[in-house]
Amino acid sequence: MPTLVVYGATSYTATQHLLPYLASHPDADKFELVLAGRNAGRLEAANALLPGSTRRIVALSLDDKAAVEGLVAKADGVVNLAGECDAACAAGPRWERPGTFQA
User: Fold this and answer.
1) Any idea what the CATH number is for the domain that residue 37 is in?
2) Which among 24, 59, 63, 96 could bridge 40 via Cys, Cβ 3.0 to 4.6 Å?
3) Chain centroid, CA 15 distance in Å
4) Is 18 within the bounds of a domain?
């Protein structure tokens, strides 16, 4: 069974879009979905919100080269949604006018 790792699985894009889509996909039983990121508690909370069976949780930092290489070596695909978030990003998305989005 193919394995798909989503690193940054507690990000907005992951929790609001990608993970619900993957967890409810008609072929969800044909691949293993692994939720990865820095905080095990937040990963468990994100996992609990998803439909279907629970997924494997892997907590690691991108600074840990050996752990990242080990995780990637076991995956058939990796989606990295981790990235820097400045003060404006941390405040959340802003809607400037109907139909427009400002990150």
Assistant:
1) 3.40.50.720
2) 59
3) 7
4) yes
The count of domains in the chain is 1
**Quick check: is 95 in a domain?**
no
Q: CB atoms < 10 A from the CB of 13, how many?
A: 14
Q: Tally Cβ neighbours within 10 Å of residue 3.
A: 15
Using alpha carbons, list the distances in angstroms from residue 29 to 46, 53, 94, 102: 19, 9, 36, 36
Dump the DSSP string for 57-72. Answer: EEE--TT-HHHHHHHH
Domain extent at residue 42: 3-90
Residue showing tokens 């959340």: 92
Residues 6+ positions from 100 with CB-CB distance below 8 Å? none
Predicted confidence (pLDDT) per residue in 6-50, tens digit = 999 999 899 999 999 999 999 999 999 999 999 999 999 999 999
Which residue bears the tokens 């193919």? 2
